[in-house]
Amino acid sequence: MFTGIVEELGRVVALEPRGDAVRLTVWGPTAVSDTAHGDSIAVNGCCLTVVELGDDSFTVDVMQESLDKTSLGALAPGSHVNLERAVTADARLGGHIVQGHVDGTGTIVTRQPSEHWDIVTIALPVELARYVALKGSITVDGVSLTVSGLKDGTDPTFSVGLIPTTLAVTTLGRKQPGDLVNLEVDVIAKYVERLLEAPAGIGGHQHAHLTNDPKEQA
């Protein structure tokens, strides 16, 4: 699990095609400082498993499904990526609960620079729009952001405000209209929808009645 607070702006060192997968090596000295083989690191919001470690880099395998359904398929040597190590139980939850499971990709429509921040508007798939709420949380390329604007309809969009820190230390400071970004909606919204739509008794279970009465136990 992650929080959507990017720890480091990494850089793709190498891409090695492996049939239906790609082996990706990323420079990220902070990310590897206390990382072990098998640990998880979010790369542009995608939870990936470390298979090799170097002094200041790590290597992960990216399956074809991830390449097809996220923006990772567009990476090339030299590409910058947002990195976050998995959260520990004693860490502050500075963003929101992020699984690192990308729900789809969005496209940056506009960005409006101002004196202290940028307002970025992103188009998202219609099927994801229902999970996005004004003032709610959404993860964009692994960055936890608050939705500041929302437009429903056949071509839904949402807007977020990027403060100077976000512009400086994440890839969102470099993204331009037309660029793809990975989106993960708030997982709580998906569970609420599932609970409301599931017919009574589906997925339910019986609760055992515990008692200290020997007769009832028999």
- The CATH architecture term of the largest domain is Beta Barrel
Structural class, judged by helices and strands?
A: mainly beta
General form: globular
Helix fraction bin: 10-25%
Entry summary:
This protein has 218 residues and is mainly beta. The protein has five helices and twelve strands.
What would you say this structure looks like, in words?
The protein is mostly beta strands. It has 2 domains: 8-85, Elongation Factor Tu (Ef-tu), domain 3 (Beta Barrel), CATH 2.40.30; 104-197, Elongation Factor Tu (Ef-tu), domain 3 (Beta Barrel). It is built from 5 helices and 12 strands. Strand 4 and strand 5 form a beta hairpin. It starts with 7 loop residues before the first strand and ends with a helix.
Keywords:
218 residues; mainly beta; Elongation Factor Tu (Ef-tu), domain 3; 2 domains; six-stranded antiparallel β-barrel; 12 strands; globular
